[in-house]
Amino acid sequence: MSSDRNAFTLLELVIALAIAAVIAAFALPSYRGQIAHGYRADAVAALYRAAQFVDSRFPDAAALPAGLDRAPESGTAVYRLRVLSGNDASGGYVIEARPMEDGPMRDDSCGVFTLDATGERGNQSAAGTGTPPWAECWGIR
Q1: Domains of the chain, earliest start first
Q2: What is the pLDDT of residues 54-98, one digit of tens each?
Q3: 109-115: long-range contacts at Cβ-Cβ below 8 A with a sequence spacing of 24 or more?
Q4: Can you give the pTM of this predicted structure?
Q5: Do the beta carbons of residue 47 and residue 97 sit within 8 Å?
């Protein structure tokens, strides 16, 4: 009879699971943060594309065409874009990127992204959450 073992002991298995749990505890929040950052970057890029379209057709561009009215351009929409009328201070229009009600960014601290005709960028945070970290929302480091 051989004394060679080809299996893990219970202690080795518990230690391996504990290490995996610690790694997961650090990795998952970071992963979620990177996903949110990617969605925000899509929203910012979509705002600039929409602004180029509206600038080329202003004041006739009351609505955005299909494809420019969402972010990201393909796949499931996470943000919905629309053109709002503005005043002289905003240059005549404001474009907003609002998180979809049932999307993954609905509770994001950045809330609604806005870009006006003068290039002024902003965010309207979710109800009562205060002013979002502007540089984080727009990807400025």
Answers
A1: 10-134 (3.30.1300.70)
A2: 988 877 777 899 999 999 998 999 999 999 988 888 888 999 999
A3: 109/133, 109/137, 110/40, 110/136, 110/137, 113/40, 113/43, 113/44, 113/47, 113/79, 113/137, 113/138, 115/47, 115/48, 115/50, 115/51
A4: 0.79
A5: yes
